[in-house]
Each structure stands twice: as structure tokens, then as C-alpha cells.
């Protein structure tokens, strides 16, 4: 019996070294990741330090991914070469993955497909919702480096994405991490902030009110830096860390809902039925619940909130491996 083809994905984002393997049916055979190490109290890494850690982590992650997948016969490789598929999108950290992918492609004599970190997130989300591969949809990319609203369409080897809204300054992830570090939480702060809100509500037996933050009424484009300053002033005024964290998350969800309403007003309701919410911030269960409820009540046309699994929302190479599979099966050249 002929063994199934397998496809390797590599992604070296700002804070995670990721390697994954999928089979010819799109089943994930392995998913090996490692967070980069960040000193306590720091709010990130220099690109040179992140690159150095990726170079050191990639061999062990690659070995783990291949072992977990029972050392399959690889047919093709894909690698994230840049954050997004737009001119000028570049981060040195992605070159760590590109170089090892190029070496593997030459050594094994198999095709190498270059994609983007954002397309990897989109493909990982579409794996959970394959209907999105057949029709246009809105995507919201929420991460440490990106807060964007996109109109997307799958084109066989990746996505056509038109940028229609988002943040003009800080990303959702940056804001959460900056405020989180001020609250004494580890970086990146998303999971710890979610736990802080839940623990605070349990201890006080109340749901924290969002009134500590102003209501932001953005266009499809908005600024978030004022919310960072507001969070710090609330802490200095005596609000508890849990109250500030809960108010911040509520304000972010309301801001995004207002932006999506603005985007929807420019679209034909019959064309777009779904919003795929991707990126590490999208794994926040509180934010998911708020957005899902708001999108169901959207007027004039409700929208379906779609997510990748919580595990596939954070940075990973599963979507990148799926892009390798799609390109190879469609006979794409490198």
C-alpha cells in the first residue's frame, strides 16, 4: 500500500518557532512549537535576539515534528516569508525559517512554496470552516503585531485579501501585552489577563462593569493608544488590576464591533455572511463570546463568527503546511 504524501510547514513569527506536518487529506500529523524566551518585565524581543532563538530552536522543533508524524515521506514544504502579502511587509525573524526550508528543499529535492504568516492563520481557520474556501468572507486578524479587517477570497494556493479597516497605531496584542506587563503579568500577557479577569469575577462574585473605559466609536479605522493611557490612569486612581483588565477587554470588543458595522455598511449583505477571527488574541474566550454575541445581533445583516480552534489561533505552522499541500496538489511551481 502506497504511503500517503505529507507536507511540512515552517513559521518563525515574532515569538514562536513552529513546525507542522499534514497529510494529503489535510489531517494534522504533528504540531511542534516553542515560545521564544522573554525576560520577566520585558515587553518583547529585538529582532536579532528573536532570530538567534529561532535558529537554535528550529532543529529540535523539526525533529519533534517529524518524529510525531512517524517520519513521513515529504512531498513539499511551505514557509512563511513575511508577515503579510503586501509590499514592504518584512521582518528579519522570518528569514530563519526561510533559510532552513530552502536547505531542506534542496537536500530532499522537493518543492518549496513561500507564503505569509497571515495566510497561514487564514488557512488554519478555514480548516475548521471549509465552507469559507468556497465564498468570500471577512477576516479579522488580531495578534501582537496586527489588528486588521480584511475582505478575503481563497484562490487555490492562498488568499486575496483587501484591507478595509483596523488599528492605525497599536495592535490589540500590543495593547494587551503593554497593559498586562504594567499589571505585573508575564509577557505575552493574553492568557494571564484572561485568567485574571475570571479569578477576579469569581472572587467578587460579579461581572466587572465596562464603564471604567470610554465608549470608542471608530470608523472602520481606529486608534488604540489612548486606551493604554486610560488603563494606566485607572490603576493610579485605585481601580483593581482585574477591573482594569475586564474593562479593557470589553472596550476592545466594542471597538471592533463598531468597526465591523462600518465595514458591513459598505458591503452587500448577500455577499458576506461570515467573519473569520484569527491570530493569537482570537484565542481569548471572553473576547470570542462578546464578538459572537454581537455579530449575531448585527444589523441589518447578522454575521457568523468563525474561529480556528483555540490551539490553532495562536501562532503555528499548521496553516502553512496546508498551503504546501494545496500548492502541490494543484501542480503549482515554486
TrEMBL record:
Q: Which GO terms describe its molecular function?
A: metal ion binding; tRNA N(6)-L-threonylcarbamoyladenine synthase activity
- Gcp-like domain mapped to chain residues: 50-293
List UniProt keywords, sorted A-Z: Acyltransferase, Metal-binding, Transferase, tRNA processing
The record's InterPro entries line, in alphabetical order, gives: ATPase_NBD (IPR043129), Gcp-like_dom (IPR000905), KAE1/TsaD (IPR017861)
Q: What class of enzyme is it?
A: transferase
Q: Which reaction does it catalyse?
A: L-threonylcarbamoyladenylate + adenosine(37) in tRNA = N(6)-L-threonylcarbamoyladenosine(37) in tRNA + AMP + H(+)
Q: Name one GO cellular component term.
A: cytosol
- EC number(s) in its UniProt entry? 2.3.1.234
Q: Name the domain of life this protein comes from.
A: Bacteria
Q: Which organism is it from?
A: Acidaminobacter hydrogenoformans DSM 2784
Gene Ontology biological process: tRNA processing
Quote the protein name from its UniProt record. Answer: N(6)-L-threonylcarbamoyladenine synthase
* SUPFAM superfamilies in UniProt: Actin-like ATPase domain (SSF53067)
